[in-house]
Amino acid sequence: MSFLAKNDPEIYALFEQELERQSYNLEMIASENFASNAVIEAMGSILTNKYAEGYPSKRYYGGCEIVDKIEEIAIERAKKLFNCQYVNVQPNSGSQANQAVYQALLKPYDKILGMDLSHGGHLTHGAKVSSSGKNYHSFSYGVELNGRINYDKVREIAKIVRPQVIVCGASAYPREIDFKAFRSIADEVGAYLFADIAHIAGLVAAGEHQDPFPHAHVVTTTTHKTLRGPRGGIIMTNDEELSKKINSAIFPGIQGGPLEHVIAAKAVGFGENLKSEWKIYAKQVKTNAKILADVLSEKGFDIVSGGTDNHLILLSFLNREFSGKDADHALENAGITVNKNTVPGETRSPFVTSGVRIGSAALTSRGMKDKEFTFIAEKIAEVLENINDISVQQKVRKEVRELSSKFIIYDRPTY
Ligand SMILES: *Cc1c(COP(=O)(O)O)cnc(C)c1O
To answer: Does residue 172 line the site of ligand 1, with CB under 6 A?
Structure first.
């Protein structure tokens, strides 16, 4: 019996329920994935006991010889993976990584230009409810009605705004991001280019998406999305001066003692990303997303931008009676977890929306391939075509459970 089961049956019982939920539903939230048992084991470890404020061999505490080695391995692996010279592996999350980048590059009320949240950008790219929109003067660019970034328009906006930082990267954009085009715009207006590759990092690491380096001055990513590591963030650059500013911005700027157990798990995750199998995984993630786009568009659904270059698709219901919220709810009842999302030309409120975002990374980690994704796309279509029919949702829920039980991810859960 596990320690947790014995010491805290109340929490343990909820862990069991969550394992059941993760195992028998189809997880298609584009920002989620399943970390390996090895990554989870590293996270749930004795390293949580250690204070290590500072950086390897420059700590404010004794007894850091071992965590120094672990953090250095995490840094070296990330450098190799993303082909860059300086990495900070301490950010507790993607949002904190971004906050530190702004702190390193900007003075309060400087100008940033990022992608509009409702067009696929992230809160931390200047949304007014985020500190990025409160501490800095934020402006945004968006996508055209065809769902794509128009780089000429971004240039026009940049020339008017004259930002100190241009942020590129997105949370809900199904197309390749042209870092080179962004850099030429940044150079024209004398701005830093900051690429946030939180969603696509796993594809970048595999050579399945254009590299942000050498175009971006600074790059951040989360480690838990397509990278499939522990929940956290990292910051990368090739500029030594910037790397010093970034390190000070993380500690003592916005964080205290680093989560060395999570840093160890990041190292383990990067180790997985460096293996040759990772390239096969990333290719399959893209293939699976394409299958979703192809099958659903054959069934008459409107795919934003007409398809996908990465791990996600956006379905648009602008021309339908039902909303993104309705679709999210119906699919949830059928055991398929997605999220509602605004779409270009949105007519409904952000709480209702006219779209859903569907990702392929998590189910690809479970070993699902072309055949399963074709089946899943058909099931999504069946639920949406019969959106008010609860019996269809119940039938699909059974089929989903049957499929899921053939692709059990944690056969020996470490929780
Ligand atoms: C998910 C995401 C983040 C934030 O990551 P958290 O770890 O949730 O703070 C930042 N930027 C983009 C583009 C993201 O998609």
So the answer is: no
- Is the per-residue pLDDT at 115 higher than 90? yes
Question: What is the predicted pLDDT for the residue at 1?
Answer: 63
For ligand 1, is residue 196 a contact (CB within 6 Å)? yes
CB 221 near ligand 1, within 6 Å: no
Q: Kindly give, in sequence order, each residue whose CB lies less than 8 Å from that of residue 244, ignoring residues fewer than 6 positions away.
A: none
pLDDT, tens digit, 9 for 90 and up, residues 209-237: 999 999 999 999 999 999 999 999 999 99
Rounded Cα distance between 305 and 307, Å, is 6
Q: Where in the chain is the domain with CATH 3.90.1150.10?
A: 280-404
Q: Which CATH class is domain 41-273?
A: alpha beta
Pairing of strands 218-222, 192-196: parallel
d(CA 230, CA 270): 10
Instruction: Label residue 412 by pLDDT band (50, 70, 90).
Output: confident
Of all protein residues, the one whose alpha carbon is nearest to atom 4 of ligand 1 is: 94
**Which one of 3.90.1640.10, 3.40.50.11540, 3.90.1150.10, 3.40.50.1000 gives the CATH number of domain 280-404?**
3.90.1150.10
CA-closest residue to ligand 1 atom 15: 171
Report phi then psi at 410, rounded to 5: -110, 80
Domain with CATH 3.40.640.10 in the chain: 41-273
Q: Is 122 in the pocket of ligand 1 (CB under 6 A)?
A: yes
Q: Considering 51, 151, 410, 415, which one is annotated as catalytic?
A: 51
